[in-house]
Design goal:
Blueprint: H1 4-47, E1 100-107, E2 110-117, H2 122-133, E3 140-141, E4 144-148, E5 150-155, E6 187-189, E7 193-196, E8 209-212, E9 216-218, E10 224-228, H3 230-242, E11 250-251, E12 258-266
Antiparallel strand pairs: 1-2, 1-12, 2-10, 3-12, 4-5, 4-11, 5-8, 6-9, 7-8, 7-10
Length: 267
């Protein structure tokens, strides 16, 4: 026969066991949350990318105007050209590899001028000259703004959703320009830097690039190919101050930025 004292002890043990189970479940939930956060951070550090779970600074390199289904962010898997569209070859190198070039972006929010050194990034500058001469960037939108973790405005996509590209890729260049990576695997991209987006893989630059409006730590896997002039940097910073649509920290800028005309000239 169970005494009242024994029954109380049994109930106490059962209560303790339930508490322990709840604590263990809470620990498991916390671990899962931390794993998700760590994975999100890993995405940023590994890919960029832009973008922190979806801030990867990527450019899928699809041909301009393809009808491939697009993911909702540039971190989506890169679509491939349809059977009716063949990839274009990288344009033949025609720039003066000892010269400095400027890319003038006339936007609805103000002019942004970029200085590009062809001696350090000849194939990147050559590609931008080739595309600008073809009016490839005219009428395109800067489709992505990030305001947390990394601080960039991403442009250069003819489709305006992060999935467009010129149909060819260009190699990485000048990756050691910002110094050696620290213990966290990153270097600082100073405010005013212009760098290439990519597909998270080496040598996959296309037409998308990002304008750094505040010092940003990223892996040294994005070609830094230019500098923004003071007036242009203020334009980008003003856009950043207005924030992202819907109050998010990553997405289309609330202040829409359209590149009305882009021209590349030798200084």
């Amino acid at each position: 026969m169970v005494t009242s004292d024994q029954r109380r002890r049994q109930l106490a043990r059962e209560k303790y066991q339930r508490q322990q189970q709840r604590r263990e479940e809470n620990r498991r939930k916390a671990k899962r949350r931390n794993t998700v956060v760590a994975a999100a951070l890993a995405v940023v550090l590994a890919a960029g990318g832009a973008v922190y779970a979806s801030v990867a600074l990527t450019d899928d390199g699809s041909p301009k105007g393809t009808d491939n289904a697009a993911g909702d962010t540039p971190t989506s898997s890169a679509p491939t050209p349809s059977a009716s569209e063949s990839a274009s070859p990288e344009p033949k190198l025609s720039v003066d590899t000892k010269a400095t070039y400027t890319m003038a972006l006339k936007t609805n929010e103000g002019d942004i001028t970029l200085t590009m050194d062809a001696a350090k990034t000849p194939r990147t500058v050559n590609s931008f000259k080739h595309l600008a001469d073809k009016k490839y960037f005219d009428g395109t939108k800067c489709h992505r703004l990030t305001t947390q973790g990394i601080f960039v405005l991403q442009c250069g996509d003819p489709k305006g959703d992060g999935t467009g590209g010129p149909g060819y890729t260009i190699p990485d260049e000048n990756l050691d320009a910002l110094g050696k990576a620290g213990a966290d695997g990153t270097v600082t991209f100073p405010a005013g830097t212009v760098a290439m987006a990519n597909t998270s893989q080496p040598n996959t630059g296309g037409s998308q690039y990002f304008l750094v409006y505040k010092d940003t730590k990223l892996p040294p896997s994005y070609t830094p190919f230019g500098k923004i002039d003071a007036a242009g940097l203020k334009v980008v910073q003003d856009v950043a101050k207005a924030g992202v649509e819907g109050g998010a920290t990553d997405g289309a800028p609330k202040t829409a930025v359209t590149i009305e005309k882009a021209t590349v000239t030798k200084k």
